[in-house]
From TrEMBL:
Belongs to the UPF0718 family. This is Permease. It comes from Ruminiclostridium papyrosolvens C7. It is found in: Cell membrane. The chain crosses the membrane at residues 12-37, 57-83, 95-116, 122-144, 179-196, 216-238, 278-296. Keywords: Cell membrane, Membrane, Transmembrane, Transmembrane helix. InterPro entries: DUF318, UPF0718. One of its GO terms (cellular component) is plasma membrane. The lineage of its organism: Bacteria, Bacillati, Bacillota, Clostridia, Eubacteriales. It is a multi-pass membrane protein.
Amino acid sequence: MIDILHREFIYLFYYFSVQLEQIFTYWLLGMIIGSAVSVFGKERIHRLFSGLQNKRLGVLGIFLACCLGIVSPLCMYGTIPIAASFSEKGMRDDWMAAFMMSSILLNPQLIIYSAALGTKALIVRIVACLLCGFIAGLLINIFYRKKSFFNFSGFYEMKSHDTDPNILLRFLKNFGRNVKATGLYFLMGILLSALFQRYVPADAFADLFGSNKGFGVLMAATIGVPLYMCGGGTIPLLRQWLFDGMSMGSAAAFMITGPATKITNLGAVKIVLGTRRFVLYLSYVIIFALLIGFLLNV
């Protein structure tokens, strides 16, 4: 029994160390760039978004709001107070919906992480997230043009943690907070990936998520809901799944439903939407994830 456990430990350690070596650089680079954007670019990004409100941009404004949402480094709980201040200044709900939806799905740090999945998967993720935010903004523009969609009462812009007068210390403190927030999930993701590689037959996985493309998309969209805890933590899993035969459509569905239904994001969104519009939000996310997955698998 001890020999068996020792053998399995060696196998798992080998798989863990190999995957850590392959993906660590992406994680570290993502942390560095994410902290740099947060410390040096966050205020500029928010000023650019705020500057859109008095311009007659129409549909282009929705697209620009999506782009700014993706490059914004804040989490959802950080984005909502910012959005509340924008709303107080008269920002349109459709532009805010596009900004917030895109911000939920992607950020500069996660873009760098996702490069570990390969160029095709990275492009699919960026385009799918932009499209999801853009369509969300269009729907708000069509159905909520004359009534409010959000309720930001009680939200106030949070005080920034990046206040150290020494610019290098400001960056290092932000980097340290990022490591603390994501490091454990990143290691857990690699461990789960090693367990998956060791004990789940690649052929069986390929049949479930690759050959049976329609059912695979549905399954991937479904498991994205409970499994997604941290973007960096799911990258090792996705990387292994794609290697073992997961279709790109299934991966895209997972990458949409995962961050959009992450428990911390759901809690924040529920507060500003209320029950009825929160149900609309969940329905939209799931339908969009399934459609984008099916389209990619055609």
